[in-house]
Design goal:
It is built from 12 helices and 14 strands. By secondary structure, it is of the alpha/beta class. Helix 1 packs parallel to helix 12 and helix 6 packs across helix 7. The longest helix is centred in the first third of the chain and has 19 residues. Magnesium ion (MG) binds next to helix 9.
């Protein structure tokens, strides 16, 4: 039996998360595993009900669980709060830090039927299957920062601070994952300018001997941004620091048709956290227009990384693939000639394929 903390959050979160929960239930009955779900408040919903974005009981529930399933946080209602109280910064970042989730895995995988939904030409994007391993608890997000008044006006700074130990653990994890995939690792930095990047690059160079099966290449972040749209198929695993990973993963996500397709896993700490890459999409919330596939695919990552249920993870991915092949589309991936469905309908279609497959 596995205990899952369920944090639907804001916006479309409460619509997409139930579809992922039901997917896990379907997997459970297939595989003879029991999943026990406990829900908790996070983000704007928690601010409204408890006065803070990450209530202590939510964090405690996460710590006691075997995995965390998160929807999305944030929305216009809370955008005017001071930065330190906003759902994104007051819930997401402390959740990552408190749970020790230093590794964020963001795959960009093109489901073949969606090639036409990509902004790239089908011949450029076909075959894209990459994984960004983003460092998640260091760098500019968590380094020393300050904003202060001086005689000549305000100054502000954030610090991209990394220790050897922080770089080693994320790089080792990326090498390990690359070894299980196609054996190619691209380490992305800005070593021509940044000191922290030079430590990053030296560390990768020092560790590569431990992983002789993996080929390593260093790439500057600006070049990587260009290569991602020029020839995304050249990448297998990309490892990079927090901010670079934030930016590159948004860019990579849209290559595959829609950010509504992209799952993520945050691991390395006391419990794994799984969430879609997209945000709370307040503009379409409550309308059954949201694509639940990113959250459903996040459940596949949970099965793989938290429960070592690789076969079940593949079954979920295959079910999604078959639903797409049959032409069902939520609005974000709709093209003329396909069948438009809503959030719950898409979830039900995936479960039906799971039961039949
Ligand atoms: C992400 C988001 C967050 C981040 C924001 C909401 C704090 O953009 O998960 O990529 O920058 O990490
Ligand atoms: Mg981001």
């Amino acid at each position: 039996m596995y205990k899952i903390a369920v944090l639907p959050g804001d916006g479309i979160g409460p619509e997409i998360v139930p579809e992922a929960v039901k997917t896990l239930e379907a997997v459970g009955s297939r595989e003879g595993v029991e999943f026990q779900f406990s829900e908790a408040l996070v983000g704007g919903a928690a601010i409204d009900a408890r006065g803070r974005a990450l209530p202590a009981e939510t964090l405690a529930l996460c710590r006691q669980s075997d995995a965390v399933l998160l929807g999305a946080v944030g929305g216009p209602k809370w955008d005017t709060l001071p930065p330190a109280e906003r759902p994104e910064t007051a819930a997401l970042l402390p959740l990552r830090k408190e749970l020790g989730l230093y590794a964020n895995l963001r795959p960009a995988y093109l489901f073949a039927p969606l090639a036409a939904a990509s902004p790239l030409k089908p011949e450029v994007v076909t075959g894209t299957d990459l994984l960004i391993v983003r460092e998640l608890t260091g760098g500019l997000y968590f380094g020393p920062k300050k904003r202060e008044k001086t005689a000549t006006g305000e100054v502000a700074y954030d610090t991209m601070l990394y220790s050897t130990a922080e770089i080693e653990r994320i790089v080792r994890l990326a090498f390990t994952i690359a070894r299980q995939r196609r054996g190619h690792l691209t380490s992305v930095d800005k070593a021509n300018v940044l000191t922290s990047s030079r430590l990053w690059r030296d560390t990768v160079e020092r560790l590569k001997g431990e992983f002789p099966e993996v080929t390593v290449e260093h790439m500057y972040v600006d070049n990587c941004a260009m290569q991602l749209v020029r020839r995304p198929t050249q990448f297998d695993v990309i490892v990079t620091e927090n901010t670079f990973g934030d930016i590159l993963s948004d860019q990579a996500s849209v290559l595959t048709g829609s950010i509504g397709m992209l799952p993520s896993a945050s691991i390395g700490g006391v419990v794994g956290l799984y969430e879609p890459c997209h945000g709370s999409a307040p503009d379409i919330a409550g309308q059954q227009k949201a694509n639940p596939l990113a959250t459903i695919l996040s459940v596949a990552m949970m099965l793989k990384y938290s429960f070592k249920m690789d076969r079940a993870a593949q079954a979920v991915e295959a079910a999604v693939s078959r639903v797409l092949a049959k032409g069902y589309r939520t609005p974000d991936i709709y093209v003329p000639g396909t069948s438009l469905v809503g959030t719950a309908e898409m979830g039900a279609l995936v479960r039906q394929e799971l039961q039949e497959g």
